[in-house]
Amino acid sequence: MSAQILDGKAIAAELRESIRQEVDRQVAAGNSRPGLAVILVGEDPASQVYVRNKKIACEKAGFNDVSEVLPAETTQEEVLALIDKLNADPEVHGIIVQLPVPDHIDPEEIIERIDPCKDVDGFHPYNVGRMATRMPIMAPCTPHGVMTMLSKTGIGLRGLDAVVVGASNIVGVPQLLELLNERATVTICHSATKNLPEKVAQADLVVVGVGIPEMVKGEWIKPGAIVIDVGINRLEDGRLVGDVEFEVAKERASWITPVPGGVGPMTIATLLENTMKAAYKLDCKSKKA
Ligand code: NDP
After folding, report:
1. Could you tell me if the CB of 195 is within 6 A of ligand 1?
2. Which CATH class is domain 141-264?
3. What is the pLDDT of residues 144-161, one digit of tens each?
4. Is the predicted ipTM greater than 0.95, yes or no?
5. Which of 123, 148, 171, 233 has most ligand 1 atoms within 8 Å of its beta carbon, as the pocket-test mutant?
6. Given Cys at both, which of 57, 189, 244, 265 links 12, Cβ 3.0 to 4.6 Å?
7. Does domain 31-116 have CATH number 3.40.50.10860?
8. Residue ranges of the domains in the chain?
9. What is the pLDDT, as a whole number, of residue 284?
10. pTM of this structure
11. DSSP secondary structure string, the chain?
C-alpha cells in the first residue's frame, strides 16, 4: 500500500494562519507586531529568493519586516554594528543572517553577536546548548518544522528507532537533539558512516538532509517506516527532487514527505513561529540569557 503523504504545504499554511490570528489578537490587545530582521550581505541569487520569500511570508502573517540588504563589500565590523543596533531595538524581535555570507565575513562571530532571545534561527551556541540540555528555547527552523509535521502523523516518537542521515549544524544535529528530547533512539549518519543502507533499513523513522539527489534508495526503507526528506536538489532538466528515491520509498513507507511541498514550506512557517514566540511569549532574560 502506498504511503500517506505528509503535506508540508498544507501544514505550513495552517501554522501560518494560526500565527496571523495570534498576531491579530496581540495587536488588538495593544502589543506591537513581531518584527523580523533578515540580514543579507551580497547578492547571492538563491539567497535573494529566500529573503524575498521570507519578506512575503512576514507581510502575510502581519509582521513588520525590517530586513537589511547590505552590499557584498560590507565589513565584518559593519555587520556587527548593525546587529548591535538591532539587538537594542525593542521593535525587532527576531534577527537572522542569511547564509552563506561572503568569504571575508566570519559567520560564527556574527551569529554569536545576536541576542540569544532574538536568535530565531536557533543557531547561537546558547540556544544549541539549551537544546542539548533538554531546555530548548529557540529551535532551528527546519528540524523543528519536521517535528511539527511528525506530530500530524499521530505516531508517538518515544522509543522509535530513528536514523538521521546528514549531520550539519542546521539540519542533522538539531534534528538528532529534537528526536532525542522526545525519547526516540537516534542514530546519526554522515559522510564517514559505514553500511548506510543497513542503518536506514532498521529505522522506524528516517530523516534525510544530505544534498545528494535520491541517494537514499527506496528499497532501503523498512516497510511501514516514516520517511522525512529535507533535501532539495535541482536537476539539470529543471526538476526538483529530494535526497530520497520517492517513487520507490512511497510504496514501502507509512508516511512520506514529497519534494517539493514537504519540509520546505515548514521552514519559513517555523521561522515565523519562533519570531512570534520571541515577540510575545518568551521570557528569555529570566532564564539568564
Ligand atoms: P550540508 O552540506 O551542510 O550537510 C550535508 C550533510 O550530509 C553532512 O553532514 C555530510 O556529512 C552528510 N553527507 C554527505 N554525503 C553523505 C553520504 N554519502 N552519506 C551520508 N551522509 C552524507 O547540507 P545541509 O544540511 O545544509 O542541507 C542538506 C540538504 O537539505 C540540502 O539538499 C539542502 O538543500 C536541504 N535543506 C533544506 C531545507 C528546507 O527548508 N527544506 C533547509 C536546509 C537545507 P559530513 O558531516 O561528514 O560532511
Report:
1. no
2. alpha beta
3. 999 999 999 999 999 999
4. yes
5. 171
6. 265
7. yes
8. 31-116, 141-264
9. 53
10. 0.96
11. -PPEE--HHHHHHHHHHHHHHHHHHHHHTTPPPPEEEEEEES--HHHHHHHHHHHHHHHHHT-EE--EEE-TT--HHHHHHHHHHHHH-TT--EEEEPSSPPTTS-HHHHHHHS-GGG-TT--SHHHHHHHHTT--SS--HHHHHHHHHHHTTT---TT-EEEEE---TTTHHHHHHHHHHTT-EEEEE-TT-S-HHHHHHT-SEEEE---STT-B-GGGSPTT-EEEE---EE-TTS-EE-SB-HHHHTTT-SEE--SSSSHHHHHHHHHHHHHHIIIII---GGGT-
